[in-house]
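EI: anyone free to look at a 283-residue chain?
SC: sure, send it
EI:
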Amino acid sequence: MSTDFQQARESLGARLRELRLSGPAGRLTGPQLARRLGWPHSKIYKLENGQQTATPEDLRTWAEGVGRPEVFAELDARLKGFESHIRSWRRQLTSGHRPVQDGWNLEVSRSKVIRAWEEAVIPGMLQTADYARAMFLRYADLHGTKRDTDEAVRLRIRRQEWLHETGHQLHALVWEAALHALICSPAVLTSQLDRLAGTIGMDTVHLGVIPLSASLKVPAANGFWVLDERLVITEDWHAELWLDDDDNVATYLRIWRTLGESAVYGADAQMIIARAQRAVHPR
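SC: here you go
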């Protein structure tokens, strides 16, 4: 579990304990509050020690049980705050990939400048439909989730309309390894590389490729996206993180710019893409 997520649960638990100990009717022990709420004592212990994530109903019941119903809004805001920033794939994909794509499309539509870094895949904004379909199927298999693949593909491709609107800029960095990753069939990868090469020269796309032979000032770690210097979206195997505090945004911008120092652009990027195309279908 994410350290940030766990720290947020523990902080919320400490607030719940504080309310239990300082209610208007006086201090309540854990067993006393458990009896009042009709809960097992273990639930009180787990919530206060950050071992269980509270539901909104848990928080409302707690606030009323300690005689402070007015604090529910504060507790609920805390819960929504850390749950919205750390979005587990298990919970997000319960209804399939479409809701995730809907959320992305909304944020992209609000943005003017997007910076992307991908070390293992082609950025979603530059994917072909067949490549995107292969990606969604791989992740549906991995997480055992609903296969709403065609709907998810349509939404991802619709997002690319953003690239053809005046005033928008996509600054994408891709590690050369992503150009060779056969997470799809060779034929699909070939078409995807053609599509990628075709974006070079677009006035709304600034594509940089980091050669495998390039000297790196920072490791080529997880991919991430920075939207208008207001929001970072990055992901790990267990969750997608949405970070909007100034310090985190500044950190990811610094990492993006540092990675960019190792990239090549224009004709040099075209040469690397062409090399990957030859590797898919060697003569």
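EI: Residues 3-86 form a domain with the 434 Repressor (Amino-terminal Domain) fold (CATH 1.10.260.40).
SC: 👍
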